[in-house]
């Protein structure tokens, strides 16, 4: 019965109702997409790299000519092995959360008609697998005689390790061992599957999945030099990293140490996701501010209507309406306004998500985010209107009538 009178009342205040509903709809659209972005970013920050991050550090050198590569490698590796606490040293082309230097689109057939996606290619010497700490799930690791020199980009027809995620994508429901794929003018043969190996720049490259990476065995040389991965005890890795940098500067004064990329892997992870931390904090701040503004708008409108309807409230109280009836009236009224705003907000949320999908390659907004956004705004609306509604329900009938 109250709903009919509430709708009639709202029709008399179309502009105020529309403005608060519009504010709620904007809050709904932004809140749903902001929450979605936060969850996506937090999920990305918690990614499992597949390597022993806590025990690893990396050194990056540049500024030397290709013909110096073999000599630089020899001097640097020897110097690193002399640093106290280093258990293993290897030469690689890149590391997780560092610079992505080798990625390419792959084909799953020799005719190159079936596109498999863009993946990262980790290239490392015979110590790299042990140093990284890759966990084998099936198959085997490359044999000692399968490490070959790099041609232009990779060794010729090398055996490779792929991740479980990549195997499931390439050959769903089939055994990947022994299968081939083609990229960069060569054929790659799968000899083993590892649990995880994240791309160098998760969430920031062209790979559709963070685990779309392979490991290619190679011999260090002109095309595999300047990036070194070293392993030590977790408790000592920070000290080891500092000592390693000092040793490398002394051993290779003709090369340039990249201080930004030469750190422990935990520091590289933190640095890599630093912008994500800022983005999450910013989105959370915007969401809280938007919810606070929306709540203040609801409170202001409800308070205005309480003052404006003092006579109406007094008459209803005199005719026998209880405090619960008055309270319920404002709560139902608020629920209708918020619901109208949410309905428009859901359409705006999908429109905003479509723009993000088109320009920033984000996935589609799942429908359950809309349910969370709607529930949040319904609860917020009921809490915001509660104080003005309680004040209205406490107005004595005679005082309300005399005051108007």
TrEMBL record:
It is found in: Cell membrane. Keywords: Cell membrane, Membrane, Transmembrane, Transmembrane helix. Its main location: membrane. It holds the Pfam family FtsX. Residues 286-397 form the ABC3 transporter permease C-terminal domain. It is a multi-pass membrane protein. PROSITE patterns: PROKAR_LIPOPROTEIN (PS51257). The chain crosses the membrane at residues 277-307, 335-355, 367-390. Residues 19-255 form the MacB-like periplasmic core domain. Belongs to the ABC-4 integral membrane protein family. This is FtsX-like permease family protein.
């Amino acid at each position: 019965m109250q709903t009919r009178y509430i709708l009639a009342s709202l029709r008399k205040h179309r502009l105020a109702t529309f403005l608060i509903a519009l504010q709620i709809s904007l809050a709904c659209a932004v809140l749903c997409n902001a929450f979605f972005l936060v969850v996506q970013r937090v999920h990305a920050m918690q990614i499992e790299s597949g390597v022993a991050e806590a025990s690893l550090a990396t050194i990056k050198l540049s500024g030397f000519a290709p013909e110096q590569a073999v000599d630089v490698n020899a001097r640097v590796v020897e110097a690193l092995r002399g640093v106290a606490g280093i258990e293993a040293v290897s030469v690689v082309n890149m590391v997780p959360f560092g610079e992505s230097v080798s990625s390419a689109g792959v084909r799953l057939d020799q005719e190159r008609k079936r596109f498999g996606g863009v993946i990262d290619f980790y290239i490392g010497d015979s110590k790299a697998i042990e140093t990284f700490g890759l966990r084998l799930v099936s198959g085997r690791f490359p044999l000692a005689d399968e490490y070959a020199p790099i041609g232009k980009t990779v060794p010729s027809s090398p055996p490779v390790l792929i991740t479980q995620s990549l195997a499931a994508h390439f050959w769903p429901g089939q055994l990947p061992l022994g299968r081939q794929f083609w990229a960069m003018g060569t054929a790659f043969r799968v000899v083993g599957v590892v649990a995880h190996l994240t791309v160098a720049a998760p969430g920031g490259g062209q790979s559709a999945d963070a685990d779309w990476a392979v490991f290619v065995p190679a011999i260090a040389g002109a095309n595999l030099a300047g990036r070194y991965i070293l392993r030590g005890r977790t408790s000592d890795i920070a000290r080891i990293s500092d000592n390693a940098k000092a040793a490398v500067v002394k051993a290779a004064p003709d090369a340039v140490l990249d201080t930004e990329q030469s750190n422990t892997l935990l520091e590289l992870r933190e640095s890599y996701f630093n912008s994500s931390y800022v983005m999450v904090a910013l989105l959370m701040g915007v969401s809280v501010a938007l919810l606070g503004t929306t709540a203040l708008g609801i409170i202001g409108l409800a308070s205005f209507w309480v003052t404006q309807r003092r006579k109406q409230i007094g008459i209803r109280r005199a005719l026998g309406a209880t405090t619960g009836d008055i309270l319920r009236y404002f709560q139902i009224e608020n629920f209708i306004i918020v619901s109208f705003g949410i309905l428009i907000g859901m359409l705006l949320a999908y429109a905003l998500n479509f723009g993000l999908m088109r320009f920033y390659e984000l996935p589609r907004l799942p429908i359950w985010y809309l349910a969370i956004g709607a529930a949040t705004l319904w609860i917020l609306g009921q809490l915001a209107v509660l104080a003005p509604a309680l004040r209205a329900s406490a107005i004595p009938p005679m005082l309300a009538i005399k005051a108007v």
